Amino acid sequence: MGFPKNFLWGGATAANQCEGGYNEGGRGLANVDLMPLGKDRYRVGTGEIRMFDFDENYFYPAQKSIDMYHKYKEDIALFAQMGFKTYRMSIAWTRIFPNGDEEKPNEEGLAFYEDMFKECKKYDIEPLVTINHFDCPMYLIKKYGGWKNRKMIDFYVKFAKALFSKYKGLVKYWLTFNEINMILHFPFVAAGLYFEKGENKKQVMITAVHHELIASALVTKIAHEIDPNNKIGCMMAAGSYYPETCKPEDYWKSICDNRESYMFIDVQSWGYYPNYALKWVEKQGAVIPFENGDKEILLNNTVDFISFSYYSSRVSSENPEKAKQTESNIFASVINPYLKASDWGWQIDPLGLRITMNELYDRYKKPLFIVENGLGAADKIENNGKIIDDYRIEYLKEHIQAMKDAIDEDGVDVMGYTSWGCIDLISNGTGEMKKRYGFIYVDRDNEGNGTLKRIPKKSFYWYKRVIATNGENLSLEGLDLYE
């Protein structure tokens, strides 16, 4: 059987991690611009440290990033050379509405993305657009408190409506919010949340995510009204939790941890909060801020497909304090002794992708789209100028094989696959350039030095062949000419 004929192969980026040009083209300041490199990045991202403006004592990698703002034609041409069928990208909210609450959009920002989409179409690359990928105007955070304020729904709806109207016929695949479950783990990045002293943090996060869920449902409705060809997906940070042992308490903990990951996608796919979620909210000493009509909005406007990121599986323990934890700071879990790990402590589990896909498909019975998957590694340029990243090829090969098994052996319906960071970009978690994911090397270091020159890696040529054979040839053989 293999992959469907119309399978959407490609790669993924996010505006805040690749564009740069943070103060060009009428763009306003966003929360993601203010994520510094270094030890305080995590605490800013979780809303523990207030950073509402640039501080000269820090370096902010997103200001310039890899300068795709000026180099997008060169980059899209390289994607086309690999044979991309789709390119997942996001739109910087503050390029379209610099403050977020303007009456009319910024025409220069609209024109920029229109040019990008037309450039994709020139090569028959289908854009897959994330409307909100960890991106919130700082003006809305300062004035309204970010997504904890219900007024954000109207601002977001206006933003999305402008996109659907302007890009009708150019874009048909949309994602409403990137990794919506990340609100519980990285709230300033995911929803512009900063916590005041004494606030019930869980209540603030639950309020914010409810507003995002209502906004997502409204936008799904509008997208279908403006263009019936539009397909709207939700997006979660996925990776199934395994119990540490067969001890019933560990197994129960894994069920609870998995539910916490699925909770908001349940709402977007099913149209209502399941009972376990209502109980979970109650246990947090919080309430869901329902208003009249909310339940109907959610029920009548569910998503068309389920998209997700997968980097690793996770492990649950009823006593995690006694167990050794992984180094990954945002989604730390108990270490799985049966798995190897990347240089950044992310455990590598290709079968976990197949397991996750089956769990999601069994749960939602809607087409899946793997929109992030990849290996962050420190690549080295050899003396001959080449980059031999066999470790990345091996990682991707095993995960693509697991995806193929889920399709062939298990009957899972999958629309496409976009590997994360198809071109090197700024890491969301650490802010580093050294943690590279791309098929294309970008000459820039952690401190922002470098020529920004683009250099295809060995994986570039490997992935080109994977796409050309529709996933049939995953071997490393025959790439010797590159070496």
From TrEMBL:
It comes from the Bacteria. The keyword Cytoplasm does not apply. Transmembrane segments: none annotated. Pfam families: Glyco_hydro_1 (PF00232). One of its GO terms (molecular function) is 6-phospho-beta-glucosidase activity. Keywords: Glycosidase, Hydrolase. PANTHER family: 6-PHOSPHO-BETA-GLUCOSIDASE, GLYCOSYL HYDROLASE. Belongs to the glycosyl hydrolase 1 family. This is 6-phospho-beta-glucosidase. The gene is ascB.
